[in-house]
Amino acid sequence: MAKQLPTNWIDVRRDWGLLTVYQRFETTVAFVLTFVIAAVIVVALWRLIISVADTLVMRSLNPLDHTVFQVVFGDIMTVLIALEFNHTLQYVITRERGIIQARIVILIALLALARKVIVVDLHTVAPATVGALAALALSLSLTYWLIREGEGREFDRDDTGRASTS
Q1: How many separate domains does the chain show?
Q2: 131 vs 44, 53, 77, 114, CA distance in Å?
Q3: Which member of 111, 116, 119, 142 has the lowest number of beta carbons within 10 Å of its beta carbon?
Q4: Ranges of the chain whose pLDDT falls below 50
Q5: Cα-atom radius of gyration of the chain, to the nearest Å?
Q6: Looking at the domain assignment, is residue 67 inside a domain?
Q7: How far are the Cα atoms of 12, 47, 57 from residue 117, in angstroms, in the given order?
Q8: Residues 20, 76: Cα–Cα separation, whole Å
Q9: Cα–Cα dist 53/45, whole Å
């Protein structure tokens, strides 16, 4: 897969003249967003390194303390979410996929929700908030499952245009 990316970038440069004005605009926006998100990733990674160094090396905080655990893993999840988002933009730039990929957006939302569950102090939030987080997790999971199942089905069409499973 590492060898695919340079080939795809070469393809984008080669096919630039064949793209419509809007496709060029879309590709340029995705390219700029890639750099913006890369900067966010660098800042988030730097913050994570400082946090872990402060916790483990300086021993100013107990790494087994629940609050420290929440902060460190929340920072790790932030970096992972940004990396996944940036990876998704690579598909747009190289024209492998369209700008909106519902399945990927749902997965990123699930990652963000998992981060929220990790960083929230369940002892201080209202029970309705916990219920709302659970309902959101269930809804996103069900939506992802439905999208995945829909993408996996291949239907044969008869002469009337109706789907048949034969």
Answers
A1: 1
A2: 29, 35, 22, 14
A3: 142
A4: 1-6, 154-158, 164, 166
A5: 21
A6: yes
A7: 39, 20, 27
A8: 39
A9: 12
